[in-house]
Amino acid sequence: MSSPGTVYIIKVGGNVIDNPAFLDSFLKDFAAVPALKVLIHGGGKIATRIGDKLGIAANYVNGRRITDAETIDVVTMVYGGLVNKQVVAKLQANGCNAIGLTGADANIIPAVKRPVKEIDYGFVGDIPEGSVQTAPVKLLLDAGITPVLAPLTHDGKGQILNTNADTIASSLAVALSAHYTVRLIYCFEKKGVLRNAEDDESVINLINRDIYRQLLADGALSDGILPKLDNAFAAIESGVKEVLIGHAGDLQRNTTGSVAGTLIC
Amino acid sequence: MSSPGTVYIIKVGGNVIDNPAFLDSFLKDFAAVPALKVLIHGGGKIATRIGDKLGIAANYVNGRRITDAETIDVVTMVYGGLVNKQVVAKLQANGCNAIGLTGADANIIPAVKRPVKEIDYGFVGDIPEGSVQTAPVKLLLDAGITPVLAPLTHDGKGQILNTNADTIASSLAVALSAHYTVRLIYCFEKKGVLRNAEDDESVINLINRDIYRQLLADGALSDGILPKLDNAFAAIESGVKEVLIGHAGDLQRNTTGSVAGTLIC
């Protein structure tokens, strides 16, 4: 049992969302986490599949996906509706009193539409420092209600924005660390940060700033993990007690005292 | 200004949701209602349009729409995601601290999948008497947060269910009347209950049980309004202070002391 005042901020990636059996087993473990907790879910490929069926072509500039007006509607439907509410209904079935939200709900995450420089990313929201509103999250947590956040924010002027789920997780973790001991766990389909992307067993158990610098110098890390690590260090430096990157199937161990995966400190 | 302890339960119909300019003006008025309030929105035709684009044909038996497995996913996306979150973002822009929910969220409305008799309605949820959980709604209202409910419930076993928005509104109104003075307002595109469906000015200003019986005997009422009136009388008889059926454009008058539309008592 965690000490009182601990909140787990748990982010689960799109590859878990896309796999129904994996997701069900993850949600069962999440429901059983013996502490206050928040779930942030990624979107998965279902938005792309539904967008394709609706005839909305994915739009890329320099390899970066653009969130145009049609795409923000699709992700609002799919992330904020289909995925979020199915996760909530399943958590309820597992005895976890979940409430599904976006950053627009209760104004939890006011964001800013990314300024147009070389690329116009469209309806993508960046979260300014100090922007997250902890009062509604605290209200729910302290009432025994578990927030489940979709990767969406808003601009305060009526527009929903697409925001990276890892960033939402770290921003929320930092904001809540003013009120709780916060442990941030990134759950995905790998066992942790790998020294060799081809070898699933090459998990690095601990990364601090020095080790990170060395890994970057060695070119050992895959591109995909770098934003996660940057988010993790930013969180640690802003008051988050602990960041873990690990397999979604290891959530139970990672919330009951042991560590499976990569600990960032 | 309403007396303390008053909550307005305001339902807005699908025809308003489908008309962006009408919806914007309604949401501005809703945001300005000078009391605690809850919004319940219908779905509108957008779910049908998106279902058509996705190749999901509407399925009718004896003229009643069936919510099959594909359809419940579409309405979960569209009502619970697109419509609900756009309404929330717009209310936030109007200074109303809205939170968008379904009946699955915080377990507000546990429902029962409609039993199969002559017709299998599919994933349609009926709300048992006494089922609505007022604690989370009260928690939000008393914190100055305005719940916005999509017409969706859940069965507690992981399944989202499609539930009539009028029924959600009256069930919630009845449940909250244990804690507040509740005024229930059904807002739609007509000026009230009409004596003659062809004449938009033939509004009946007041309906009680006796008048209702007479109107039914005369065959004066259109079929569409009957479930609304049945819901209204059920609400009044279970503790709701007042039920009004009126035009969405008359919300401001109907929440500041005057009455435009049909008062049920």
Automatic annotation (TrEMBL), chains A, B:
CDD domains reported for this sequence: AAK_NAGK-like (cd04238)
Family matches, as InterPro entries: AceGlu_kinase-like_sf, AcgluKinase_fam, ArgB, Asp/Glu/Uridylate_kinase
Gene3D superfamilies for this protein: Acetylglutamate kinase-like
Source taxon at top rank: Bacteria
Span of domain Aspartate/glutamate/uridylate kinase: 8-246
Subcellular location per the Swiss-Prot or TrEMBL entry: Cytoplasm
NCBIfam families named among the record's database cross-references: argB (TIGR00761)
Family of this protein: Belongs to the acetylglutamate kinase family. ArgB subfamily.
Protein's UniProt name: Acetylglutamate kinase
Organism encoding this protein: Chitinophaga chungangae
Organism lineage: Bacteria, Pseudomonadati, Bacteroidota, Chitinophagia, Chitinophagales
